[in-house]
Write a structure and sequence with these properties.
Elements (H helix, E strand, L loop, with lengths): L1 E7 L7 H17 L2 H6 L2 E6 L15 E7 L2 H8 L2 H14 L6 E5 L7
Antiparallel strand pairs: 1-3, 1-4, 2-3
Helix pairs in contact: 1-4
Pfam families: EthD
Protein name: EthD domain-containing protein
InterPro entries: Dimeric_a/b-barrel, EthD_dom
């Protein structure tokens, strides 16, 4: 299983609250209902930041963390080049994120203990 983590950052003309509202109420249902999402994405998780943190913790300037699961890198590429992503999802992402400031991490899990 390939997991893609995206450190998502909002557009400079938006507040964090505006970003969160769009991400939660507009983007999540739009993303979830696309045929290519259902075909390629195995899991979609929005990690919404809270104000809770241990004293002294250093936080980056991130508005949210996205986790997408794919069967493999080929599934990721197929989704990224699909009509649903190119014509619907990506234009919506640009309505509330700054793609030049989002960071992508491609990972595989290696369980140490459960």
């Amino acid at each position: 299983m390939l997991k893609v983590y995206i450190l998502s950052r909002r557009r400079s003309d938006m507040t964090h609250e505006q970003y969160m509202t769009h991400w939660r109420d507009v983007h999540a249902p739009l993303f979830s209902n696309q045929p290519d999402t259902k075909r390629y994405v195995r899991r979609y998780i929005q990690s919404r930041l809270t104000g809770d943190r241990p004293e002294g913790a250093v936080l980056g300037e991130v508005d949210g963390i996205v986790q997408l699961w794919f069967d493999d890198i080929d599934g990721f590429h197929a989704f990224a080049n699909s009509p649903s992503y190119r014509n619907v999802i990506q234009p919506d992402e640009e309505r509330f994120t700054d793609p030049t400031k989002c960071e992508y991490f491609f990972t595989t899990e290696h369980t140490i203990f459960e």
